[in-house]
Automatic annotation (TrEMBL):
It comes from Chenopodium quinoa. Residues 10-138 form the Bulb-type lectin domain. InterPro entries: Bulb-type_lectin_dom, Bulb-type_lectin_dom_sf, G-type_lectin_kinases/EP1-like, SLSG/EP1. This is Bulb-type lectin domain-containing protein. Signal peptide: none annotated. Keywords: Glycoprotein, Signal.
Length: 421
């Protein structure tokens, strides 16, 4: 340990080495943590680790009680003896115990004179005039705090965790593009992430510049009265807001998070009851709401039915097979399709009516196209495991992972599962 403490560091304004006892209180997900010393009344910079892990993430956690709201080094955790320092050149650097640079703000020689945590959870590097040179709000991980946003030209997405006890990033993202704000799933075999929900579908289409998590408090002297949590999309010409939930708690003590399961949730802290966060809003809970509200059925969740299954009214109800629809269980799996070099128009399929793939809702597919051509495209692609066809609009979707299929009331939504090449 002495060698870890005595190893040389560059001349620094601030230095903390990740050693010593953990805090007496456990953090979110029963994690252990060490407080770095950059904190406000509500938020702190910490090194935290999960119970079965020996490595740490440098992140920001709330103090009422802890929820992890930002991470510096997802996918690259560090060990005991790692260090975070603000060099005299103004660069904030995280190094592992072997002095490998894991993360940095790239702010050397830009006039930085200090580091501080603001009351809203934003960690900033500032210059002699108190201008912000760098701020954590510009680089969100899986969470947005009130007034925090995704901005065009900077980090334009949230990325879920792989699990509640993982330092790694997961398969779900909330992404802002110039045309919309959508949720995406990175399936195991698809060449690109697939959208499974559009956040701003109720708005007039604009070229978005910002997606902001907002709270509105009617009376700041009485923050328990008439509060609204909403999100706002802003373009160069206008902005539109959509209410998520009304709350009886202090909405300033809330967060919007893309969870490891792909659901978007709002959590709010009740200051009257120590240690309690309330789940105020969950996207994908129950049936879709009206068009001017944000909501969707769980059947739109890509992993709702695991590797394979048909979902209806939020429940996995059937396991498709060449013999028909069987009772669904977690063992439901698609046929194993042997690979070949393609060019096999004789591939075998079984057909389902009134079925769509989760990706069909928010992608246009290909077309207009006849069903035979759609079948040929899948048959000639050894990675294709099935295709979906909209008879009414002559659209074709080739898929590389089947996962959750949704039963619809339209018999002209056709699904074809490949049996063999």
């Amino acid at each position: 340990m002495a060698l870890m403490l005595n190893r040389p560091f560059p001349p620094s304004i601030f230095l903390y080495v990740n050693l010593g006892d953990h805090d007496d209180y456990s953090g979110e997900y029963d994690s252990y943590y060490r407080v770095v010393g950059v904190n406000s009344a509500r938020y702190s910079l910490l090194f935290y680790k999960f119970p079965e892990s020996s490595v740490y993430t440098l992140g920001i956690g709330s103090n009422f009680p802890s929820k992890w709201v930002w991470a510096a080094n997802p996918n690259d955790p560090v060990s005991d003896g790692a260090a975070i320092y603000l060099g005299e050149d103004g660069n904030l650097v995280l190094v592992d115990v072997d002095d490998r640079v894991v993360w940095q703000t790239n702010t050397a020689n830009k006039g930085v004179v200090g580091l501080k945590m603001l009351e809203d959870g934003n960690m900033v590097l500032y210059d002699a005039n108190d201008n912000f040179i760098w701020q954590s709000f510009d680089y969100p991980s899986d969470t947005l705090l009130p007034s925090q946003s995704l901005k065009a030209g900077l980090t334009t997405k949230l990325v879920s965790r792989a699990s509640n006890t993982s330092h790694l990033e997961g398969n779900y993202t909330l992404e802002m593009s110039p045309k919309n704000v959508s949720l995406y799933y990175k399936s195991p075999n698809s060449p690109t992430p697939l959208p499974y929900y559009r956040i701003d579908q109720s708005f007039v289409p604009t070229f978005s510049k910002e997606f902001r998590y907002d709270v509105f408090v009617k009376d700041f002297d009485n923050p328990i009265s008439s509060q609204t949590i909403q999100y706002t999309t802003t373009s160069s010409l206008s902005s539109s807001s959509q209410e998520l939930v009304k709350t009886s708690y202090d909405s300033r003590l809330s967060l919007l998070r893309l969870e490891y399961d792909g659901k978007l949730r709002v959590h709010t802290f009740d200051p009257m009851i120590i240690g309690v966060w309330y789940e105020e809003f969950t996207l994908f809970k129950g049936e879709p709401l009206s068009r001017n509200q944000l909501g969707a059925t769980e059947c739109q969740m890509p992993e709702k039915c695991g590797n394979f299954g048909i979902c209806y009214k939020g429940e996995c109800v059937a396991c498709p097979s060449p013999r028909g629809l069987m009772r669904w269980s977690e063992d439901c799996a698609p046929p194993t399709v042997g690979g070949n070099s393609g060019d096999d128009t004789d591939a075998k399929y079984y057909k389902m009516r009134g079925i769509r793939h989760f990706s069909c809702m928010y992608t246009e597919g290909e077309g207009p196209m006849k069903p035979r051509k759609c079948k040929i495209k899948c048959s000639n692609d050894p990675k294709c495991v099935g295709f979906f066809y909209d008879v009414d609009n002559l659209r074709c979707w080739i898929v590389y992972d089947l996962m959750t299929l949704t039963r619809t009331d339209n018999p002209n939504h056709l699904g074809y599962v490949k049996l063999s090449n």
